Amino acid sequence: MHSIGTPADVEQASGSEDTVSFTVKGSGETLVLDNCAVIVAGYTGRDAHAVQEHIDELAAIGIAPPPQVPMFYPVELASVTSSESVSVVGERTSGEIEPLYIRHGGRYFLGLASDHTDRELEAIDIPRSKAACPKPVGREIIEIPDLSTFSLDDARARSWVDGELYQEGTLSNLRTPSNVIELLIENHGRNDEDFLCLGGTLPVIGGAFKYGTEWKLELALDENTILTHTYRITEGN
Fold first, then answer.
1. Among 51, 55, 76, 118, which residue is least crowded by beta carbons within 10 Å?
2. How many CB atoms are located within 10 Å of the residue 223 CB?
3. What residue numbers bound the domain in which 104 lies?
4. What phi and psi, each to the nearest 5 degrees, are found at residue 136?
5. Do the beta carbons of residue 202 and residue 173 sit within 8 Å?
6. What is the structure's pLDDT at 146?
7. Digit-coded pLDDT (tens) for 110-138
8. Contact of 99 with 221, CB cutoff 8 Å
9. Which domain CATH number covers 167?
10. Domain count, the chain
């Protein structure tokens, strides 16, 4: 088994807050993306009825329903980081494991990300809550040979908070990578632009957010291909 991990010394590419780099597993190729769009996809469940039930639950606690499903929330490229130390503001922030879809030069890649979010702000303004926190990503990625047939249905995602299992399951309940990307391009005119897109998550165990310090992410495509990333948060001003 080989594990696709994150070197301790990796951060954003040096010299620019508007550049992020990845290493392609297998070839060792370095991808450098600059001035590209970064999108967090929300409400990406495959079961429309279940998604609507979730929207109704959120509405019951005062969170306004989205104007469309799925939703695509833009964030700054400068918020994307593969550092193992991440600074956040506030005590009630938490992450969620997500597949990361990358388009660069017309090619597609899969990575790993955490949609770290300000949960207090989320109850008031979801787009601002997404933009308020860094988006940790793993440095190494794999190339997607054919997006139209690429499936994550059998991929198993897990996350831990301070060593306690927080999320676990397959990604079969999410919209397919090709569907998410198709809708992103169709509704937001991305055309041939490079982009990073966080593709959705799975429920947290027990249904309640946790606000720990160390976050570990793991996405296993099969027993030989495992994407991982670990980061610790510190409170900034």
1. 76
2. 7
3. 2-235
4. -65, 140
5. yes
6. 97
7. 999 999 999 888 888 888 998 999 999 99
8. no
9. 3.90.850.10
10. 1
